[in-house]
Amino acid sequence: MTDHVRTFPAVSPDPGVTRQVLADAPELMVVSFRFEKDAKGALHNHPHVQSTYVESGRFRFTLSGEDFEVGPGDSFVIPSGAEHGCVCLEPGQLVDCFTPRRDDFL
């Protein structure tokens, strides 16, 4: 089974943010994002459907022009093409799943 396990490097796409791919297949990708307080995930969009699970911390998200706060245990889906981003209010970790895989993260 270990021949199916890949290790991906952690990268810093933005100040105070660390991203690490946890698993991938052409149809699905799981990614961990760690945020320091006040770090931002800039507003952006992509063709992938994304689900976000808040492992820890507190975040203010903007999704299609609406703001909301989330904390540990919360989860939500971001539709394909929807503009979204976040600000970290308390240091924490998000676990995102993308379908299909985000080849730009490889």
Automatic annotation (TrEMBL):
Name of the protein: Cupin domain-containing protein
PANTHER family: H2HPP ISOMERASE (PTHR40112:SF1)
Highest taxon above the source species: Bacteria
Record-annotated membrane-spanning stretches: none
Species per Swiss-Prot/TrEMBL record: Salipiger profundus
Domain called Cupin type-2: residue spans: 33-90
Species lineage: Bacteria, Pseudomonadati, Pseudomonadota, Alphaproteobacteria, Rhodobacterales
Key words of the record: Plasmid
UniProt xrefs under Pfam families: Cupin_2
